[in-house]
Design a protein that fits this description.
Strand content: 15-25%
CATH topology of one domain: Chloramphenicol Acetyltransferase
């Protein structure tokens, strides 16, 4: 789509290196409406998150190029504002909505026209990596290449479909596994689903029951009082992701008990020091995250993506933190968390959690994670096996800390019973990629760092 436009064109924004297109959910403005700079003009959705597009400058909407439900490649025009665009920067920040003069060349459809937030390097200026480097997520010089990494990750097995295609498939009862996608990398688009629906079910598919209960109510439950709650877009994405992960990875969990006494002392001292300047208290999670990042540096196969014939070992830890929100579970990412201190990780977690709950995340906040921590202990869980966050090979589950009677050794070498704060960490891993012994050694490495915590080393 290349509309002839003389004003300021608002494109489908660059939302992350793995995002190739977005779906227009709804327009808040129509042709002829005046808008102010920063005013929301429409909402868009990707496979990762919904977001709002703001007007880059004051003006009047003179054309809309993509109606609601339209799927638009990144960089393509969705609407036009009058004037010459002097109120908007010609080069907008990657990862945020903005406008582009139409005469400028469009960015690559992969969304990698500039470095994404927290990712070093500029793929647009680098020469193309060799096939071997691209497969490993690195450029021709061996450095981390976010575009190549995205290509590697999005080439993993599984259904690739636009949000609109998934919705139409659900409405029409189309099995996406049986649809041949015509988009990039075989991505399934709206037209593919409609064609499959019109062609009817494949002969090999089981026949659809002829007496389905009204409104999808299970047979025998027709007389039970109930309400039907539509499944949100986020919940549908979570459900698809969880099922795909269980179908893809061979899940196994190993657990270790950790005596957090050393961390309790260090946290108490740090929080006392933070009290004077009015800084917020640190929870235990930043200490656990810092120890995890350090352990990942010694166990690179746990900070990886498994692809059957090869394993991509990621060159840094992009740490995903599972956040419980009203809309559902989101996993925003702390880029290069391994280079941060425990207090810095704590600040990053607080920022991401607040923006997740306020619906202020952008897709880049959810992209590129290499390892994830799930913290069900925050709501009282005493055990924390988890489902792996694809395409990662492992996830750390953090339950609640329990005070237990524990066998300890006194200064004279005698054993005694004492009450200790005990945390049972759960490492769930993909047994295709990692053996149980290696995963347990990784869990023990985290345990050792927490039990011998030294603030000067980690914070």
């Amino acid at each position: 789509m290349s509309p002839a436009a003389t004003g300021t064109v608002v494109p489908m924004p660059h939302m992350g290196v793995s995002i190739e297109e977005g779906t227009v959910i709804a327009w808040h403005k129509a042709v002829g409406d005046a808008v102010t700079e920063g005013e929301v003009i429409c909402e868009i959705a990707t496979d990762k998150v919904d977001m709002e597009v703001e007007a880059p400058a004051a003006g009047t909407i003179t054309a809309i190029f993509a109606e609601a439900d339209a799927v638009v490649p990144v960089g393509e025009a969705i609407c036009e504002l009058d004037g010459d665009g002097s109120g908007a920067s010609a080069a907008t920040d990657e990862g945020s909505p903005g406008a582009t003069p139409r005469e400028e060349p469009e960015a690559d459809a992969s969304g990698a026209g500039g470095a994404s937030r927290g990712v070093p390097g500029d793929p647009s200026s680098a020469s193309a990596p060799s096939p071997e480097r691209a497969a490993a997520g690195r450029d021709q010089h061996g450095g981390f290449d976010p575009a190549a990494a995205a290509d590697a990750v999005t080439s993993l097995p599984g259904v690739l479909a636009s949000p609109l295609a998934k919705r139409i498939a659900s409405e029409r009862g189309v099995d996406l596994d049986a649809v041949q996608g015509t988009g990039k990398r075989g991505r399934i688009r709206k037209a593919d689903v409609i064609a499959a629906a019109e062609a009817g079910p494949a002969p090999s598919k089981p026949a659809v029951p002829t007496a389905a209960p009204a409104q999808g109510i299970p047979a025998g439950y027709e007389g039970v009082p109930h309400e039907v709650v539509p499944t949100s877009r986020v919940r549908q994405a979570i459900a698809e992701h969880m099922v795909r992960s269980r179908q893809t990875a061979a899940h196994m969990t190993t657990e270790v008990d950790v005596d957090l006494s050393a961390v309790v002392r260090a946290r108490t001292e740090l929080n006392k020091a933070r009290l004077a300047p009015g800084e917020p208290k640190l929870s235990f999670l930043p200490f656990i995250a810092r120890a995890t990042c350090a352990a990942l540096g010694e166990h690179p196969d746990m900070n990886a993506t498994f692809q059957g014939t090869q394993t991509i070992r990621w060159g840094r830890v992009n740490l995903g933190i599972a956040v419980d929100t009203e809309a559902g579970l989101l996993v925003p990412v702390i880029p290069d968390a391994g280079s941060l201190t425990a207090p810095a990780i704590g600040a990053a977690i607080a920022d991401l959690a607040a923006r997740a709950r306020d619906k202020k995340l952008v897709p880049d906040d959810l992209a590129g994670g290499t390892f994830t921590i799930s913290n069900p202990g925050s709501v009282g869980a005493v055990s924390a096996p988890a489902i792996i966050n694809q395409p990662q090979v492992a996830i750390l589950g953090v339950p609640t800390i329990q005070r237990r009677p524990w066998v300890v050794t006194d200064p004279d070498g005698e054993e005694m019973i004492a009450i200790r704060p005990i945390l049972r960490l759960a490492v769930t891993f993909d047994h295709r990629a990692v053996d149980g012994a290696d995963a347990t050694r990784f869990a023990v490495a985290i345990k050792d760092r927490l039990e011998s915590w030294q603030t000067e080393a980690y914070a």
